[in-house]
């Protein structure tokens, strides 16, 4: 799948800006890091833009927390969109 340019103009307004990136790439299932990352994402003014970017970029489906979603949630979203 070819991916065109992804809009990143929203990055400076993201609630995660300045947060430790490791927080959004927790190790292990059920990690406390997932809950902390989701709390940051929940209040983010750019959450929808982040989710749109994550669904547009294939590698984002496999790693980390994006817009408060896990990779499993994003995979289901992409499958639903394709159906």
UniProtKB/TrEMBL annotation:
GO terms for cellular component: cytoplasm. The keyword Hydrolase does not apply. It holds the Pfam family Whib. Coiled coil: none annotated. Its cofactor is [4Fe-4S] cluster. Keywords: 4Fe-4S, Cytoplasm, Disulfide bond, DNA-binding, Iron, Iron-sulfur, Metal-binding, Transcription, Transcription regulation. PROSITE patterns: 4FE4S_WBL. This is Transcriptional regulator WhiB. The gene is whiB. Binds 1 [4Fe-4S] cluster per subunit. Following nitrosylation of the [4Fe-4S] cluster binds 1 [4Fe-8(NO)] cluster per subunit. InterPro entries: 4FE4S_WBL, Whib. Upon Fe-S cluster removal intramolecular disulfide bonds are formed. The Fe-S cluster can be nitrosylated by nitric oxide (NO). Its main location: cytoplasm. Residues 15-76 form the 4Fe-4S Wbl-type domain. GO terms for biological process: cell redox homeostasis; negative regulation of DNA-templated transcription. It comes from the Bacteria. It comes from Nocardiopsis gilva YIM 90087. One of its GO terms (molecular function) is 4 iron, 4 sulfur cluster binding. Acts as a transcriptional regulator. Probably redox-responsive. The apo- but not holo-form probably binds DNA. Belongs to the WhiB family. It is found in: Cytoplasm.
